[in-house]
Write a structure and sequence with these properties.
The chain has 293 residues and is α+β, with helices and mostly antiparallel strands. The chain folds into 2 domains: 225 residues, Creatinase/methionine aminopeptidase superfamily (Creatine Amidinohydrolase, Alpha-Beta Complex), CATH 3.90.230; 61 residues, Winged helix-like DNA-binding domain superfamily/Winged helix DNA-binding domain (Arc Repressor Mutant, subunit A, Orthogonal Bundle), CATH 1.10.10. Helices cover 34% and strands 26% of the residues. The chain has 7 helices and 16 strands. Strands 6, 7, 8, 9, 15 and 16 form a 6-stranded antiparallel sheet that branches. Strands 1, 2, 4 and 5 form a 4-stranded antiparallel sheet that branches. Strand 15 and strand 16 form a beta hairpin.
Length: 293
């Protein structure tokens, strides 16, 4: 019964993400501020009865991951932009994590988007009880190479647990995990012609570490940690979110980060300026296959 209830929550979270993405795709227009798009999606998720599992990430062109707008962002969508939209929602902690790539108006990058979706679709068809994470990763790599492209990450996804976005097992060539019925896994592919990735810009996304030296913190920082844990648990949050709630000051975030209490998610880009496409879906593993959420 517990598995069935969890599955119902996962399915609901997945449906909410799909609807939010569909509405956002219709809304997106040339000249639209990226912060407006991000906040539209986050509000839509809440309106539907879920919560964001992490800040909406919007990556333009050669941006790869962890780009979420801050409150003073002035970036807008331009004709020809390649936009990656990474969205997660949770229902009672049961998370669906999805990423898609959109063309803003017309771009020459449709084949790159199709290649990412094809590779992902082929990988999802392999998943069932008894398959290893390693075999899925190897298959994805073969699909990517056959397209004449590179995957910009050595990981092709991650396990998901209740209230835990990144579980203990990556979907990678070195991972020996055997998938079992009831496992929840996010499978992803991030493609470009080159795979040289580097950090660029200020970190806007963090999550809490559970193990740290509490005694080394000021009283204000300890209280800030408690407030953040009450709001987000160990799920990622953005500075934009906490600035809106005014529950934590930037100085306390800096102290927590400097004492190793926070996980940082620095923005990543493809260093040679190559366009990047991203596709990701979350699946619930069953004996005969998987359910895409």
């Amino acid at each position: 019964m517990k598995v069935l209830n969890a599955l119902a929550c996962y399915i609901k979270a997945g449906a909410i993400v799909k609807r939010a993405l569909a509405r956002a795709h219709l809304l997106a227009y040339v000249g639209m501020p990226v912060i407006e798009l991000a906040e539209f999606i986050e509000k839509d998720i809440k309106r539907q009865g879920a919560l964001p599992a992490f800040p909406v990430c919007l990556m333009l062109n050669n941006e790869v991951a962890y780009h979420t707008p801050n409150r003073v962002t002035t970036d807008v969508l331009h004709t020809g932009d390649l936009l990656k939209v990474d969205v997660g929602a949770h229902v009672f902690g049961y998370i669906a994590d999805t990423a898609v790539t959109w063309e803003i108006s017309e771009t020459p990058h449709a084949p790159l988007i199709w290649a990412a979706e094809r590779a992902l679709t082929n990988a999802l068809a392999l998943i069932h009880e008894g398959v290893t994470a390693r075999s899925v990763a190897h298959h994805l790599e073969r699909c990517v190479v056959s397209e004449g492209l590179r995957n910009v990450s050595d990981s092709h996804g991650h396990t998901i647990e209740q209230f835990i976005l990144h579980g203990p097992t990556p979907v990678a060539s070195y991972a020996h995990k055997v998938f079992r019925t009831g496992d929840v896994v996010a499978i992803e592919v991030t493609l470009a012609k080159s795979a040289k990735v580097e950090q660029a810009g200020k970190t806007e996304i963090y999550s809490l570490r559970l193990l740290f030296d509490r005694a080394s913190l000021s009283l204000e920082a300890r209280n800030a940690y408690s407030n953040l844990h009450a709001l987000y648990g160990v799920l990622p949050f953005s500075l934009r979110w906490i600035e809106k709630t005014e529950c934590v000051r930037r100085a306390e975030i800096n102290e927590l980060a400097n004492h190793g209490c926070l996980v940082r998610y620095p923005p990543l880009i493809e260093a040679q300026g190559q366009a990047v496409a991203h596709a990701e879906r979350t699946v619930f593993v069953t004996r005969g296959g998987c359910i895409t959420l």
